[in-house]
Protein backbone atom coordinates (compact mmCIF):
# COMPACT_ATOMS: atom_id res chain seq x y z
CA UNK A 1 0.00 0.00 0.00
CA UNK A 2 1.32 3.43 -0.94
CA UNK A 3 1.33 6.09 1.77
CA UNK A 4 -0.87 9.02 0.76
CA UNK A 5 0.87 12.32 0.05
CA UNK A 6 0.18 14.72 2.93
CA UNK A 7 -2.04 17.65 2.15
CA UNK A 8 -0.08 20.78 1.35
CA UNK A 9 -0.72 24.35 2.48
CA UNK A 10 -2.99 25.00 -0.52
CA UNK A 11 -5.19 22.02 0.42
CA UNK A 12 -5.33 23.11 4.06
CA UNK A 13 -6.24 26.72 3.20
CA UNK A 14 -8.86 25.56 0.68
CA UNK A 15 -10.44 23.20 3.24
CA UNK A 16 -10.63 26.10 5.71
CA UNK A 17 -12.35 28.33 3.15
CA UNK A 18 -9.52 30.87 3.13
CA UNK A 19 -9.45 33.33 0.26
CA UNK A 20 -6.11 33.38 -1.53
CA UNK A 21 -4.59 33.52 -4.98
CA UNK A 22 -1.95 31.10 -6.23
CA UNK A 23 0.87 32.51 -8.38
CA UNK A 24 2.94 30.06 -10.40
CA UNK A 25 6.57 30.88 -11.26
CA UNK A 26 9.77 29.00 -12.11
CA UNK A 27 11.30 26.85 -9.33
CA UNK A 28 12.88 29.55 -7.17
CA UNK A 29 14.22 29.36 -3.65
CA UNK A 30 15.96 32.74 -3.30
CA UNK A 31 13.39 35.24 -1.91
CA UNK A 32 14.66 38.16 -4.02
CA UNK A 33 14.26 36.05 -7.20
CA UNK A 34 10.70 35.14 -6.21
CA UNK A 35 9.95 38.84 -5.70
CA UNK A 36 11.30 39.71 -9.15
CA UNK A 37 9.19 36.93 -10.72
CA UNK A 38 6.06 38.13 -8.90
CA UNK A 39 6.76 41.85 -9.17
CA UNK A 40 6.39 42.44 -5.42
CA UNK A 41 8.77 44.06 -2.92
CA UNK A 42 10.45 41.83 -0.34
CA UNK A 43 8.70 43.84 2.40
CA UNK A 44 5.33 42.51 1.13
CA UNK A 45 6.32 38.88 1.69
CA UNK A 46 6.25 36.54 4.65
CA UNK A 47 9.07 34.03 4.66
CA UNK A 48 8.83 30.90 6.73
CA UNK A 49 11.84 29.11 8.16
CA UNK A 50 11.40 25.50 9.26
CA UNK A 51 13.12 23.77 12.16
CA UNK A 52 12.79 20.49 13.99
CA UNK A 53 13.26 19.72 17.67
CA UNK A 54 14.98 16.61 19.06
CA UNK A 55 11.45 15.21 19.64
CA UNK A 56 10.75 15.68 15.89
CA UNK A 57 8.30 18.58 16.38
CA UNK A 58 8.17 20.97 13.46
CA UNK A 59 8.76 24.64 14.35
CA UNK A 60 7.78 27.24 11.74
CA UNK A 61 8.94 30.85 12.08
CA UNK A 62 7.06 33.35 9.88
CA UNK A 63 8.52 36.83 9.48
CA UNK A 64 8.65 39.65 6.95
CA UNK A 65 10.76 38.72 3.94
CA UNK A 66 13.37 41.42 4.51
CA UNK A 67 13.91 40.56 8.19
CA UNK A 68 16.41 38.21 9.81
CA UNK A 69 15.36 35.62 12.35
CA UNK A 70 16.41 36.03 15.97
CA UNK A 71 16.98 32.36 16.79
CA UNK A 72 17.11 32.84 20.55
CA UNK A 73 13.82 34.73 20.51
CA UNK A 74 12.20 31.94 18.48
CA UNK A 75 13.48 29.31 20.91
CA UNK A 76 12.08 31.28 23.86
CA UNK A 77 8.72 31.67 22.07
CA UNK A 78 8.36 27.89 21.73
CA UNK A 79 9.94 27.23 25.14
CA UNK A 80 12.92 25.19 24.03
CA UNK A 81 16.66 25.70 24.16
CA UNK A 82 18.27 27.43 21.17
CA UNK A 83 20.58 24.45 20.64
CA UNK A 84 17.52 22.22 20.22
CA UNK A 85 16.47 24.00 16.99
CA UNK A 86 17.84 22.25 13.90
CA UNK A 87 16.95 23.07 10.28
CA UNK A 88 14.16 20.84 9.01
CA UNK A 89 15.31 18.63 6.16
CA UNK A 90 13.43 17.73 2.99
CA UNK A 91 12.09 14.50 4.53
CA UNK A 92 10.61 16.29 7.53
CA UNK A 93 9.10 18.97 5.30
CA UNK A 94 7.59 16.30 3.05
CA UNK A 95 5.76 14.83 6.05
CA UNK A 96 4.21 18.29 6.52
CA UNK A 97 3.17 18.49 2.84
CA UNK A 98 5.96 20.88 1.79
CA UNK A 99 9.19 21.01 -0.17
CA UNK A 100 12.32 23.12 0.41
CA UNK A 101 11.93 26.54 -1.17
CA UNK A 102 8.18 26.64 -0.61
CA UNK A 103 7.78 26.57 3.15
CA UNK A 104 4.51 28.08 4.43
CA UNK A 105 3.33 28.74 7.99
CA UNK A 106 0.25 26.63 7.18
CA UNK A 107 1.05 22.93 6.94
CA UNK A 108 -0.47 19.48 7.07
CA UNK A 109 1.35 18.94 10.37
CA UNK A 110 -1.30 19.95 12.91
CA UNK A 111 1.22 19.62 15.76
CA UNK A 112 3.64 22.14 14.23
CA UNK A 113 4.61 25.02 16.51
CA UNK A 114 4.09 28.21 14.49
CA UNK A 115 5.39 31.62 15.55
CA UNK A 116 4.67 34.83 13.64
CA UNK A 117 6.83 37.86 14.20
CA UNK A 118 4.89 40.56 16.03
CA UNK A 119 5.03 42.83 12.94
CA UNK A 120 3.32 40.36 10.58
CA UNK A 121 -0.29 41.19 11.61
CA UNK A 122 0.16 44.73 10.24
CA UNK A 123 1.37 43.70 6.78
CA UNK A 124 -1.99 43.49 5.00
CA UNK A 125 -1.89 41.47 1.77
CA UNK A 126 1.27 39.39 1.44
CA UNK A 127 2.92 36.67 -0.60
CA UNK A 128 4.19 33.52 1.12
CA UNK A 129 5.29 30.00 0.26
CA UNK A 130 2.74 27.53 -1.09
CA UNK A 131 4.51 24.37 -0.01
CA UNK A 132 6.27 24.17 -3.38
CA UNK A 133 9.15 26.19 -4.87
CA UNK A 134 7.25 26.78 -8.13
CA UNK A 135 4.35 28.79 -6.74
CA UNK A 136 3.49 31.35 -4.07
CA UNK A 137 0.32 32.27 -2.23
CA UNK A 138 -1.06 35.81 -2.17
CA UNK A 139 -3.26 36.20 0.89
CA UNK A 140 -4.42 38.75 3.42
CA UNK A 141 -2.35 38.21 6.55
CA UNK A 142 -5.54 38.05 8.65
CA UNK A 143 -6.66 35.04 6.56
CA UNK A 144 -3.23 33.47 6.86
CA UNK A 145 -3.05 33.87 10.63
CA UNK A 146 -6.72 32.91 10.97
CA UNK A 147 -5.83 29.50 9.53
CA UNK A 148 -3.55 28.96 12.53
CA UNK A 149 -5.55 29.76 15.68
CA UNK A 150 -2.91 28.21 17.97
CA UNK A 151 0.03 30.12 16.46
CA UNK A 152 2.04 32.40 18.71
CA UNK A 153 3.12 35.96 17.98
CA UNK A 154 6.46 37.13 19.36
CA UNK A 155 9.32 39.55 18.55
CA UNK A 156 11.42 37.06 16.54
CA UNK A 157 12.63 39.31 13.71
CA UNK A 158 15.55 41.67 13.38
CA UNK A 159 15.24 44.36 10.73
CA UNK A 160 17.95 46.01 8.63
CA UNK A 161 18.80 49.59 9.54
CA UNK A 162 17.20 52.16 7.23
CA UNK A 163 19.52 53.41 4.51
CA UNK A 164 20.80 56.96 4.89
CA UNK A 165 20.33 59.32 1.97
CATH architecture: Alpha-Beta Complex
Largest sheet: 8 strands, mixed
- Name the CATH homologous superfamily: YbaK/aminoacyl-tRNA synthetase-associated domain
CA radius of gyration is 15 Å
Count of domain modules: 1
Order of helices and strands: HEHEEEHEHEEEHEE
Number of E-state strands: 10
Shape: globular
Beta strand %: 25-35%
Structural class: alpha/beta
Instruction: Supply the number of helical segments.
Output: 5
Name the helicity range. Answer: 10-25%
Layout of secondary structure:
Layout lengths: L8 H8 L3 E5 L6 H8 L6 E8 L5 E7 L3 E2 L1 H7 L8 E2 L2 H6 L17 E5 L7 E5 L5 E6 H6 L5 E3 L2 E2 L7
Parallel strand pairs: 2-7, 3-6, 6-9
Antiparallel strand pairs: 1-8, 2-3, 2-5, 4-10, 7-8
Task: Fill in the keyword field for this structure.
165 residues, alpha/beta, YbaK protein, eight-stranded mixed sheet, two-stranded antiparallel ribbon, 5 helices, 27% strand, globular
Describe the 3D structure:
With 165 residues, the protein is of the alpha/beta class. It has one domain: YbaK/aminoacyl-tRNA synthetase-associated domain (YbaK protein, Alpha-Beta Complex), CATH 3.90.960. 21% of the residues lie in helices and 27% in strands. The strands form two sheets. Strands 1, 2, 3, 5, 6, 7, 8 and 9 form an eight-stranded mixed β-sheet that branches. A two-stranded antiparallel sheet has the order 4-10. The N and C termini lie far apart (63 Å). The model has no long low-confidence stretch (mean pLDDT 92).
Amino acid sequence: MIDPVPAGPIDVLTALGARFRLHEHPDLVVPSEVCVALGVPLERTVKTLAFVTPEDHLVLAALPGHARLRYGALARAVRIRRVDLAPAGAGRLARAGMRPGGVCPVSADRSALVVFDETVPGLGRVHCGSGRPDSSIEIDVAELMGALPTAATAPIADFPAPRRA
